[in-house]
Specification:
Strand content: under 5%
Radius of gyration: 22 Å
Length: 510
């Protein structure tokens, strides 16, 4: 890469990271506010029914683009592939929409929540919209156009959430949530085309299609399994414990997603195109360098969510949602691990290892299903949460380590960046727990616990964290990336591009 090319890439990455950080913070806080309002308007049973519909949409949505947006993001010749990808994306999205619209009621009954049937059928049309938006979405991601993606997400949040709240207040109930998501997806599609400067181009090149599908289908399969394994607990709880228990679990899982949604959103927005251009060699250190500060922040956030689960749930959602705290106590740290897995998947996809990513997802879901069923049988919804954390730590993390090593990542450098935050987390958790025990009032306990935990963590890890940020800056300088670019963030949703269009780039309403 020439000096001029490196300078240009550096400016793009710096610009992308800055706008991605703004996007993540603003949209996630906005989504949280809307979710809190809805939690106080809807009963846990209604949340549980909508969780079933959202589970179906999230899993099936990963197939809408057949993994082709990832291929366009990393391609050296995206213009040649775009017309073929547009045809395949629209065809797959439309087919999925028709199938799910017709089978929505049957799927809902199979999952033990017949009331979710009409909602599933309405939300099915979002698949067609997501499939139609593959090309402009990939174009924006490839150009690190995070300012434009922020504008899209903001419009989506305001219009979709505003309509949802109006419809819920008007008595539409769950159907108001479904219609709000569908309208926001339509807004997203229009804005993607407008801001990407893309015109609708359809064509089919028989020389292009096989290569696109050979890369994209494993990605789509891995993405589907990824979302399936993150939602298999919803299915099991709906079937075995009912919609009320699922409503509590759904709230807890959403809160545990905060590290993934905020920090992961920043990282995923630029990670695939950045790793694709920077990672090289058999002992590549770029993954380890980015991992250090990301892991430190993700672990602290997840740890505090776990230790302070009671005050967090009670203050944010209200006392009637307190049964969700026992679930969040397990899922908090799991959310931190998910951020790392997302970064690892981005690195693997950037290096062309889509099949390896698929293998990890298959292993994950094969081991998670029996663990979830056992956990529910032994401990109810908290048992299901514990099964998630155990499977992630004992199965998925080692599996990612193996495939990362085979893809060229320097695992010794990775290990050196994992253990310091893990050691600092122990006394930080003790400090936060003691503060909460001494101050039982939710507000004062939350503030004191958060300050105590974060303070101990920063005291023990501050210098180390500074060195990690310095390492990111040195990598930027080495690769010709301006040191002024944000250095504390280095993916789904770029591991889940279609789902990213429908959920992650939307503000969401829950």
């Amino acid at each position: 890469m020439t000096k001029a090319a490196k300078d240009g890439l550096g400016r793009q990455i710096g610009h992308g990271l800055a706008w991605s950080s703004i996007n993540s913070l603003v949209i996630r806080f906005g989504s949280l506010a809307v979710g809190v309002i809805l939690a106080r308007l809807l009963a846990p049973e209604q949340f549980g029914v909508f969780a079933v519909a959202l589970t179906v949409q999230s899993v099936v949505m990963t197939l809408a683009d057949l993994g082709m947006s990832t291929d366009l993001i990393r391609s050296e010749d995206p213009d040649r592939k775009a017309p073929t990808v547009a045809v395949l994306g629209l065809a797959s999205g439309t087919l999925l929409a028709v199938i799910m619209a017709l089978s929505g009621q049957g799927v809902a009954e199979l999952l033990g929540s017949p009331a979710a049937g009409p909602v599933i059928s309405v939300m099915a049309f979002s698949f067609m919209l997501a499939g139609a938006g593959v090309v402009p979405y990939a174009s924006l991601q490839r150009r690190f156009a995070q300012d434009k993606l922020f504008a899209i997400a903001a419009a989506d949040l305001v219009i979709g959430s505003g309509l949802t709240l109006v419809l819920v207040f008007a008595g539409w109930g769950l159907m108001g949530l479904a219609v709000g998501r569908l309208v926001s997806q339509a807004v997203t599609l229009v804005l993607q085309y407008v801001l990407a400067g893309e015109r609708v181009r359809f064509g089919f090149d028989r020389a292009v299609a096989p290569a696109v599908l050979s890369f994209g289908l494993p990605v789509a399969g891995a993405n589907m399994l990824s979302w399936a394994l993150l939602n298999v607990d919803n299915v099991a709880i709906s079937r075995l414990a009912g919609p009320v228990a699922l409503g509590f679990y759904f709230i807890a899982f959403n809160v545990s997603n905060w590290p993934m949604s905020a920090l992961g959103q920043v990282v995923r927005s630029v990670s695939i195109p950045a790793f694709a251009r920077l990672a090289a060699g058999a002992k590549d250190s770029s993954f380890a360098v980015v991992l250090g500060p990301v892991w430190a922040v993700a672990l602290l956030t997840g740890l505090l969510l776990a230790v302070l689960s009671g005050p967090v749930i009670g203050l944010v959602y209200g006392s009637r949602w307190l049964p969700a705290a026992a679930v969040l106590a397990w899922l908090g740290v799991f959310g931190s691990l998910r951020t790392l897995f997302d970064l690892a998947a981005s690195y693997l996809l950037a290096r062309g290892a889509s099949s390896a990513t698929l293998v990890v997802q298959i292993l994950w879901i094969v081991t998670l299903v029996p663990a979830i069923l056992t956990g529910i049988g032994l401990g109810g919804t908290p048992g299901a949460a514990a099964a998630h954390l155990a499977t992630a730590a004992l199965v998925v993390a080692p599996a990612y380590a193996v495939v990362l090593r085979r893809s060229g990542a320097d695992l010794k450098a990775v290990a050196r960046r994992l253990w310091p935050p893990a050691l600092a987390a122990v006394p930080a958790a003790v400090a936060a727990s003691v503060a909460v025990a001494l101050l039982p009032d939710p507000l004062t306990g939350l503030l004191a616990g958060g300050l105590a935990g974060a303070g101990v963590y920063a005291l023990l890890l501050g210098r180390w964290f500074g060195r990690q940020v310095g390492g990111v800056r040195r990598l930027m300088i080495q690769e010709g990336i301006p040191a002024s670019a944000p250095a504390s963030a280095g993916r789904p949703a770029a591991t889940q591009p279609a789902a990213a269009q429908a959920t992650a780039t939307q503000g969401g309403t829950l």
